[in-house]
Fold each of these.
Amino acid sequence: MAEKILRIENLIKKYSGVTKLHDINLSVEKGEVVVILGPSGCGKSTLLRCINALEPVHGGKIFIDDDEITAKNAPLSLLRQRIGMVFQSYDLFSHLSVLDNIILAPLKVQKRNKKEVTEEALKWLERVGLGGKAHKYPRQLSGGEKQRVAIVRTLCMHPEVLLLDEITAALDPEMVHEVLNVVLDLSKDDTTMLIVTHEMRFARAIADRIVFLVEGKIEEISPPEVFFTTPKTERAKQFLESFEYEDVKKEKA
Ligand SMILES: Nc1ncnc2c1ncn2[C@@H]1O[C@H](COP(=O)(O)OP(=O)(O)OP(=O)(O)O)[C@@H](O)[C@H]1O
Ligand SMILES: [Mg+2]
């Protein structure tokens, strides 16, 4: 049996007493790419935030390997290093260069060797097409470049699982591609990823499995070729049709 790196068992999450995630069960294999799709407000970000222990949960358990993230005395700082998260807003420090942004946490939190971390950072910057930008400051970069730096910063912490929450949502359309291509490239390295995105073509290309979430419940889990051609529920069909309509609107514009 393939190794499960992440296990979510009977997860329940509430806000102000209202249940927003209902009995979520999901296991992710090492190297697997799971894309979470669903209408706005269905709980996609909440699910990722629970996995990264940014939110207390109200039932169920989440494990990375055999370590329970949701345990009362779980060492959160250590667990968070094993789960990297990239958000829509890249949150780089404006007073630090690209390189210093990237090496900050590996040096301060992981106490790693500066030379080794710097070499790794430079290698990654090269790979994501930012070879010449190590000594620039965030204000000198485009949104797409900043987001690629944010991805490299997370990767340099060597997370076992990478969570990406709508990382292209704030970007101009021409920059979306450059960031998604970096993520596609990463998926070839067997990086385990949970991705929330509204980019359907990207989702179809990168996913091993699609998880379709509606009102805090998993409605369907399917391989992308099934989900995008013969979704199991009417709700999923409607959801996909709303994107076709978006495509038509874009073509007309
Ligand atoms: N901090 C919070 N306090 C109270 N309610 C919240 C909080 N964060 C999210 N919610 C609610 O939980 C539900 C799920 O929100 P979530 O942000 O996870 O949705 P989403 O699927 O990521 O939506 P979107 O596609 O718009 O990003 C929504 O009803 C939202 O209003
Ligand atoms: Mg969200």
Amino acid sequence: MLAPVKSTATLADLAASTPGRGLTVDDLHFAVRHSSRRKTMQITVERNGELVLSAPPGVSTTRLREFVLAKRFWIYTKLAERDRLQRHAPRKQFVGGEGFLYLGRSYRLKLVDDQDVPLKLASGRFCLRREALPAARDHFIRWYAERARAWLSSRVADYETRMEVNPAGVKVQDLGYRWGSCGKGDWLYFHWKAILLPARIAEYVVVHEIAHLHEPHHTPAFWLRVERAMPDYAQRKDWLAEHGIDVEGI
Ligand SMILES: [Zn+2]
């Protein structure tokens, strides 16, 4: 699966072995947990931003401090990442002039009095019938889901031979915080929001899920398969990690 939001992050390291409740190193404060089952030290950034330092029994404060200092860069990176993920994109207002994404481009909304369908993209505008306004969000989601199904199915067709898969088909639905997942019976699932992404990023989401038909986990073999199909996948993956969160909020 491809998830833009990571709940917790962990970093483990090997170390030798005295307890304490908390440890402060510069501006970082850690809850310290000693456990006899543990052989290594580990830092965890909890969902609420709390830093937890887990260690085997008997590890000295000096050793804990050294471990934290050695991992400082990683900790700051994780905290910055968490801040970024918690920055919520503002909810859309269904008023004339509001911009709505479609394959990476923003199109302004225009309210119209008369039109054959409730919502359509015409002459570079999303045209929404005024009487459809109370259900605007549903109309948008339906529109996106239909476009997503067609567009993503076509991309899957582009890659299936090359990536040696024969998926049962494409299903588009609300996958919560995930962009895609591959399910039972070789079906590929995608979030309707994938169609809001720039084409080359949505394409990466497709290649990522197809590769999962061979390799369920993110092993080196999985990434090798992705790279063979899409040599510049890393840039697209980075873009998604950094900007994917901004795509939320319709
Ligand atoms: Zn995945």
Amino acid sequence: MKVREVLSQGRGALITAKIDDASLEAEVLLRYALGLKRVQLYLQLDRELSFKESENFWQLIRLRLNNEPTAYITGHREFYGLDFDVDGNVLIPRPESELLVETALGLALEYPMHTIADVGTGSGALAISLAVTLPRVKIYATDISSSALGVAQSNCQKHGVLNRIRLLQGDLLEPLPEPVNLIVANLPYVREEALSQVNTRYFEPHLALDGGPDGLEAIRRLGTQVGAKLRLGGGLLLEIGLDQGEAVMVFFRHLFPSAEIKLIPDGCGIDRVMSLLLPPAILLTESGVSNAVMLS
Ligand SMILES: C[S@@+](CC[C@H](N)C(=O)[O-])C[C@H]1O[C@@H](n2cnc3c(N)ncnc32)[C@H](O)[C@@H]1O
């Protein structure tokens, strides 16, 4: 059978199983089975596949039909134009999280930026995208999961930024050795009861998705640690879930009454990121907690 026929049959099998982006997914899996780049695949559409090549491809399609994400099958996912290694220890980086990187880069143009912390780094996608684009900035990347940090470390090596990203294991901001200018965080924010609707839930780490009863458990705990780990005039960028914007704004306004807080929508108009900028002065919250600890 020819490459084009096998590709079409694979696509048909994924469409029948109602898998999104069936055409792209079938192509990625066929390229992976044959070890070809995109352009090479399209130059070989009329080549006959060997029995073994065909078997390899159908084995991958079977894994996909069993709902295993393509990124875990191939071990790769592109994020912000970079190729990241991924496995079952880390969340597959999502395209919507690129908004965090873009917003952080925008702030880096406006404000002095010496240190950034990526909290819950997973594969390291956010920290590494920032490190590659901001070569003078020192970056800390934390995660509670040592196996996730192992994946982040190999991605740092792959992109040549291991000497500029310090990987730290621990709870949220606790392992940071100093306050930073900017905190970016894509923490678990899926509501417990909605976890069953995440179609990759059997494969992606629970720890990366589960945000507790209202999805905001990790975000609220982070909020209570921010005051001690963010410099005066510093910023916090948080990825949030659908319909969480208002609750997250109310929570952070209460903690940091003088901060400039806003929601940033993605290209579809959905609020994806909460941005908080601390004023360049020490302020106390109602609970008496300082929201900034030292001069930048
Ligand atoms: C939604 S994933 C985000 C991964 C990556 N930043 C990305 O955007 O693709 C959340 C990450 O937070 C980590 N995490 C969960 N609870 C944590 C905690 N208490 N402290 C630090 N990291 C935590 C998980 O292990 C996971 O890697």
Amino acid sequence: MRGDPKPVGLEVDNPELFADYAREQWMGGVISLGMYLFDRYVMPDFAFRVVEVTPDNAVMTRTTRVELKTQVTVDTTPQLRYSMKDIIGHEQVKRKCRLVLKYLQEPARFGEWAPRAILFHGPPGTGKTMTARALAQEANANIFLVKASDLIGVHVGDGGRRISALFESARSSAPSIVFVDELDAIGLARSFQSIRGDVSEVVTALLGELDSTDETSGVVVIGATNALPLLDDALRSRFDAVFEFKLPTENERLALLQQYASRLPLPLNADLYQLARRTDGLSGRDIRDRLLKEALHIAMLSDMNEIPSSIIDQVLESIKTKSTPDYMV
Ligand SMILES: Nc1ncnc2c1ncn2[C@@H]1O[C@H](COP(=O)(O)OP(=O)(O)OP(=O)(O)O)[C@@H](O)[C@H]1O
Ligand SMILES: [Mg+2]
């Protein structure tokens, strides 16, 4: 599982629910001995290995019996490890995160005063996901990353089931962080929700889990959104705290440029101070991926042994003319 340094023991309290959940996601698929079944709904990068199957190479149907045998699963992805120190800026967010860290380390101490649900909001690429990962890393907690839109199922009832399965896994492997990304996709204001009944079902299930998760369980829910004003009020009010992620200031852009330029495989021949001034409006991700990475690739294609400032200028110009980000925050 992502963000976890050790194999995870997954305990399932409700085998029936697990069997239902398994049939639903792998129905119609051919199941062979030894294969890995990747979890598509609630646990990204989490896989179950088929240790017994009769008959072999059979198709999973509605009546297939499913049993979880061993309680240990494998970590299949190379880890992207972040620590809080890697996050540039966001001083207030980092300070507030220290409290969450304390809770994850000692949930019992907080009792009813636990910080249980936190909302991250801010423009794309400002470090929300990175911060959640760093927090999990530092607390030595598991992190369950889900996109809110993935929680909406094909059939009525799917969404609710997926959410309870997700929280069940989070509770049984606590301390853990449930990171629900793109919350605006499901947490739309009620007026929009009437269009899709399944969306309000997901929101209701999520609110229910938030309410019923015991304070001492060591589970923290972090929701993330780019569009705070679009969020349904009932959902928004369930969060204990709202952490805002702003676009980087000039000094922060300088630090981002320095941090990422120092990791480039080619030397960057540009005045970073001047570049920091000229990158107003760009996020951390823009600086790393749209500017530095793009410039590196152009230089590499031309077999250069450095990235000249002319290439940086050219890329920056194209970013600026392509789009002025129009964030809804
Ligand atoms: N404050 C920052 N400090 C260091 N690196 C950053 C920062 N902000 C963004 N980055 C870089 O940009 C990448 C993308 O950031 P991240 O995925 O956390 O953004 P996000 O806020 O979750 O965006 P989205 O809203 O699109 O999900 C990070 O992995 C990191 O490399
Ligand atoms: Mg993100």
